[in-house]
Prior knowledge:
Number of domains: 4
Structural class: alpha+beta
Radius of gyration: 28 Å
Protein name: Tetratricopeptide repeat protein
Distance between the termini: 39 Å
Oligomer: single chain
Strand order of the largest sheet: 15-14-19-20-21-22-23-24
InterPro entries: TPR-like_helical_dom_sf (IPR011990)
Shape: flat
Organism: Ohtaekwangia kribbensis
Largest sheet: 8 strands, antiparallel
Number of helices: 13
Amino acid sequence: xxxxxxxxxxxxxxxxxxxxxxxxxxxxxxxxxxxxxxxxxxxxxxxxxxxxxxxxxxxxxxxxxxxxxxxxxxxxxxxxxxxxxxxxxxxxxxxxxxxxxxxxxxxxxxxxxxxxxxxxxxxxxxxxxxxxxxxxxxxxxxxxxxxxxxxxxxxxxxxxxxxxxxxxxxxxxxxxxxxxxxxxxxxxxxxxxxxxxxxxxxxxxxxxxxxxxxxxxxxxxxxxxxxxxxxxxxxxxxxxxxxxxxxxxxxxxxxxxxxxxxxxxxxxxxxxxxxxxxxxxxxxxxxxxxxxxxxxxxxxxxxxxxxxxxxxxxxxxxxxxxxxxxxxxxxxxxxxxxxxxxxxxxxxxxxxxxxxxxxxxxxxxxxxxxxxxxxxxxxxxxxxxxxxxxxxxxxxxxxxxxxxxxxxxxxxxxxxxxxxxxxxxxxxxxxxxxxxxxxxxxxxxxxxxxxxxxxxxxxxxxxxxxxxxxxxxxxxxxxxxxxxxxxxxxxxxxxxxxxxxxxxxxxxxxxxxxxxxxxxxxxxxxxxxxxxxxxxxxxxxxxxxxxx
Length: 548
């Protein structure tokens, strides 16, 4: 009992709060995952081969890609494996090179002139194909995306001749592109093979809910929370975790929650009010998910969507894909819902998950029924539907064009019209809203020099957040230009860059009127990469506070 009480107090101290009395404790764990496309059980070994059609991969790049040709749960042999993996790498080819310019009007001693800033918008291909063969039969041929865009910025941008000359003499440019794509492909190939054919431990994150118990009214729910959380924590990295102890702990927690739901009331002052009920639904869905009873897990999640608790809906939304994925894998392997199969340790590896793979999306596209609507906002509240003119897809790299931050071109009355950030409030193109923002670029001039840009709006609300993209030199290759980003936020009418000497102290002050969140930030529960996540929670809290 003392151990349970100590554990619960610890969770209360470090838990993540979404509302006034409901908290969710996250838990990262590894679970044994089955493949989506299981191979014949008689197959035990695999071999691999890399075919470099262009013969332009460096030795280390070949080795790096070959290490990605791995199927956890199978033994690798030098050749003639039961399963044969082939990665076919086509040569990297520049398919299009388009000149672009950003002229700037200058005046000196009464003489006007134009300063050119040339660069190349480049499209290139670097396709790869994964081929899987078993017993002499091709099982799968998976083509990986082959076309990409980038920009080439010379040191001297003032003339077309200098642009072309630098490009012709830059022998490392294609090597840089090949390096970048090879590094990306390693993880892509490895994860694809593991997900479809491998057996092994995969990362997962779950959230267990409990009530912040100030008056000692929720001892039963805290006990259920502790039972489920400890069961899940103990199950991590175990191949066969569904033992009698695990089932006993989880089923005892389920019994406590089901008993509590008999008190459920729509009265906001009730012990089991709608928010607490929603939290219990979420915990029950998680409990059945861990028991591999996907039908019951989905039944409880459906109840959550009807509950007036945004925080629990968000947690449920994050659990849904896990339930669907695990169900699909069980079906593919012929397992009955709720029945854990006999597991054979196939010598699996424990792959690591990149942090960004589990991070929430930060974009909030504006979407209306029937698809995203393209429009400009002349002034707040004054919108106009327009048709955008995009000269070429090559100027839209990574789906977040640097070009569209400086100007947009629309069709108005069958005429081509160029619009700049100083002229309108913002615009929405393909569901992404960009707002006109202004900041000081150079304080050494008199008057100061200001920069005006259309910046992507990442978050709306009490503290809106924006993303600004710009071209800079790659830290990995000083000869290569890349697109980087900076984040800005608005507090009142003041636009500030997301830059804090002491992140936790600075952001805790920013959200100080939400004391619980401010205290968690100050205590170190978040890192710099969590800024959008923090502000999203703050904005939602402010929205609910305003409604109340």
